[in-house]
UniProtKB/TrEMBL annotation:
One of its GO terms (biological process) is D-ribose catabolic process. Pfam families: PfkB (PF00294). Coiled coil: none annotated. Its cofactor is Mg(2+). This is Ribokinase. ATP binds at residues 186, 222-227, 254-255. The lineage of its organism: Bacteria, Pseudomonadati, Acidobacteriota, Terriglobia, Terriglobales.
Length: 318
């Protein structure tokens, strides 16, 4: 096993980001000051975040043979991401329309998955040797649920740790939770999956307890500017956020967190320290526009962590 190998099973879509002075109301058309086309998709973003954070990353996905797919191929070549199991589809590469509030950095997103949604269980199985040689398999919910479940189950059968980022939130069968060593929802995803509205730390703990009762080994609920809450059978903690500067755009923050978390876990950091590393990765990403382009490099993360060395965790109390 390569103890710094991370395999990501996930999506690539081209991001079409529209920056606006405010998000439009239903049925309303407004003019925006800027538009950017770039690489996106939760799986792809997490692969880039992990690679820049210091991980040895392989990506399993499917692309069309079209200009959007070519954006992905160039990105992976530039970032040193292994593409031995990036398959070619006969349908177009997907796309995401992202509306960004220029003042707050908040966003609204529509995703059409396209080519990545045509990946098959046989294609996942073809990556068995790759997965077996990894220390972590990370998946999200921008692929068909049967593919996500198949990948997690394969990794589990091979003794490989699994991270499930349940985004975008969707109803999951109970047995799927038992395949997740780590689950990483944000507040809204945690509420959608558990029925617990996450407003306070006590709420986050209640939501975490639901995940643990369903068979997840480690529940990590990301809390935006409040950091993250983490709980397993033996510990619970509130990992406070790090301040890396003014927020420009929150798109991709969760992907940055997950990529950083995966790297820290493969490097053997204790869980709280790994979550803190993920928080630092996300904190830097939100100070920049874009998704994949906003992901920080390892030296930046280490510098931010060093500058906040006195701020670690807080007791998990309401």
């Amino acid at each position: 096993m390569n103890h710094n190998r991370i395999t990501v099973l996930g999506s690539f879509v081209a991001d079409l980001a529209f920056r606006v002075d405010r998000l439009p109301a239903r049925g309303e058309t407004i003019l925006g000051p800027s538009f950017v086309l770039g690489p996106g998709g939760k799986g792809s973003n997490q692969a880039v975040a992990a690679a820049r954070s210091g991980g040895h990353v392989s990506f399993i996905t499917k692309l069309g043979r079209d200009p959007f797919g070519d954006i992905a191929r160039k990105l992976y070549a530039d970032e040193g991401i292994d593409t031995g199991h990036v398959y070619e589809a006969t349908v177009p590469t997907g796309a995401a329309a992202i509306l960004i509030d220029a003042a707050s950095g908040d966003n609204a997103i529509i995703v059409v998955p396209g080519a990545c949604f045509t990946i098959t269980t046989d294609e996942v199985d073809a990556a068995r040797e790759l997965i077996a040689g990894s220390s972590v398999l990370m998946a999200q919910l921008e692929l068909p649920l049967e593919i996500v479940e198949h990948g997690l189950a394969l990794a589990r059968s091979l003794g490989v740790a699994t991270i499930l980022n349940p985004a975008p939130a969707a109803a999951l069968p109970e047995h799927l939770y038992q395949l997740a060593d780590y689950i990483t929802p944000n507040e809204s995803e945690a509420e959608a999956l558990t029925g617990v509205a996450v407003v306070t730390l006590a709420d986050a703990e209640r939501a975490a307890d639901v995940f643990l009762a369903r068979g997840v080994k480690n529940a990590i609920i990301t809390l935006g500017a409040q950091g993250a809450f983490v709980k397993n059978a033996t510990m619970s903690a509130h990992v406070v956020a790090l301040d890396a500067g003014a927020v420009v755009e929150t798109t991709g923050a969760g992907d940055a967190f997950n990529g950083g978390l995966a790297v820290a876990l493969t490097e053997g950091l204790p869980l709280e320290a790994a979550v803190r590393f993920g928080c630092a990765t996300a904190a830097i990403s939100v100070t920049r526009p874009g998704t994949a382009p906003s992901m920080p490099h390892r030296a930046e993360i280490d510098c931010l962590l060093a500058s906040h060395a006195g701020t670690t965790t807080q007791p998990a109390t309401a």
